[in-house]
Design a protein that fits this description.
By secondary structure, this protein is an alpha/beta fold. It has eight helices and twelve strands. Helix 5 (163-168) links the parallel strand 8 and strand 9 (172-176). Helix 2 packs across helix 3.
């Protein structure tokens, strides 16, 4: 038998937008080799069922109003487990570097001298609209897309988003973590110049069996979402690409088991 090395490694693995089948080949490989899996709330948790009985699973899930672990505690956990010779997978939803705090965790590992690999994932900003039949860019409609965190209210002094540029530009706007702030975000965009008639959609529980898509206009989409009892996680899409939803084979996209 070979001895375990003195120091293990950390892998920041993007699990994709809900469906466990959308994790990358590399991500699945590292998950099989893990001694410890630190899992986020929105990560595809069905993947945990395939782990061996000796794998330590740490629930680091964060919700809008509560955390199982603080970010500092997560950082410390990654370093301590790896220094103890264990191989650690930090399993996240979407992509580790798209509002996933992956950059912070990578820097902590680097400062501690821990080997750290970043495994990209399909970000929910693109994957969830796709599963709903909405391409975020389309030839002849828009050539750019902006991904915005809705976690910070547009009026908050800590907001670094240029809402005027978003409102006056022609590109698609994707809002993540924006269910609670959607009324204020929509009002801000309209106030700064984006027409209230701009097509908009909210895709709730993207990639799951109970995925729900609400389609409307920017001026009313917040009320539409509230009437449908939309709750996080949800992805908001604002732009002319929403009109394409009825033109693409979303039923096939949503149920890949049916085959091509």
């Amino acid at each position: 038998m070979t001895e375990r090395p003195a120091t293990g490694w950390v892998a920041l693995v993007g699990g994709g937008p809900g469906d466990p089948g959308l994790i990358t080949v590399r991500g699945a490989e590292l998950l099989r080799r893990a001694d410890v899996v630190v899992v986020d709330r929105l990560a595809p948790r069905a993947l945990l069922d395939e782990l061996g009985p000796t794998v330590e699973i740490v629930d680091a899930g964060k919700s809008p109003h509560g955390h199982n672990l603080t970010q500092d505690a997560i950082n410390l956990l990654l370093v301590e487990r790896a220094r103890g010779g264990r191989n650690v997978v930090r399993l996240k939803g979407g992509d580790p570097f798209v509002f996933g705090r992956g950059g912070e965790e990578a820097l902590v590992c680097a400062a501690a001298g821990i080997r750290c690999e970043v495994v990209p994932g399909v970000t929910s900003a693109v994957g969830v609209p796709a599963r709903a039949g909405i391409p975020v860019t389309h030839r002849g409609i828009t050539q750019d897309v902006s991904i915005v965190s809705g976690h910070v209210d547009p009026s908050h002094p800590g907001s670094t988003t240029d809402w005027t540029a978003l409102a006056t530009g022609p590109g698609t706007i994707i809002v993540l973590m924006g269910v609670g702030t959607l009324p204020r975000i929509a009002a801000e965009l309209v106030k700064r110049g984006r027409p209230a008639s701009t097509p908009a959609a909210v895709v709730c529980s993207g990639g799951d069996d109970d995925q729900l898509t609400i389609v409307g206009e920017l001026g009313t989409i917040a009320a539409d979402a509230q009437a449908a009892d939309v709750a996080p996680p949800a992805v908001v899409v604002i732009g002319e690409v929403v009109r394409l939803r009825g033109a693409v084979p979303r039923d096939r996209i949503a149920d890949p088991a049916d085959g091509p």
